[in-house]
Amino acid sequence: xxxxxxxxxxxxxxxxxxxxxxxxxxxxxxxxxxxxxxxxxxxxxxxxxxxxxxxxxxxxxxxxxxxxxxxxxxxxxxxxxxxxxxxxxxxxxxxxxxxxxxxxxxxxxxxxxxxxxxxxxxxxxxxxxx
Length: 130
Known about the structure:
This protein is mostly helical. It has four helices and no strands. α3 runs antiparallel to α4.
């Protein structure tokens, strides 16, 4: 197990180094300081707003780890889906800009993950009773 951890840590460090190298040598990025501002802004929004709100909601209103887990997944899916959802129907004359039914797909993703959470809850409840 120790060898696996060392190998994955080295691989991860190598990938991070490759990403930083690509970031610093990308012709589209004219000011790396803008990237740092963007990265720290994302960190502040994630750790300063998103996670505390989810933790407070989960601790205050939700019972059970499966439902809490599903709410975290639903929040992450919503965060990813929000930009196209807010721009749905506004393609500015370019039909290929937002070509998919994003609202339907978002609701479908939430439904599939809710069913998976419900099945997980039922299986764990059945195992506890049996």
